[in-house]
Amino acid sequence: MVSLLREVVDGDLDVFFAHQQEPEAFRMVAFTAKDPLDRDASTSAGGGCAPAGTLTVRAVLVDGCRPAGHVASWIDPQLGEPE
After folding, report:
1. Residue 27 above 80 pLDDT?
2. Quick one: which of 11, 17, 35, 49 is 20 to 30 A from 58 by CA?
3. How many CA atoms lie within 13 A of 36 on its CB side?
4. What is the pTM of this model?
């Protein structure tokens, strides 16, 4: 199994939203939308947790083609370092 990262495309958002509906995944996530059933809020960039312009999100692909999840990084405004 090979994993790759690439920029997120619109087609990935349904996969990510479905992942977030799993009870265990929802319990573990650090940042959630106020309404976890609101797809638009749940799939918005960073959910408002990152300072504007500092968020980088990448899709994690399994076998180089199927989105399995995503990773995000942003710059901490106080430390000036990536989170």
Report:
1. no
2. 35
3. 14
4. 0.69
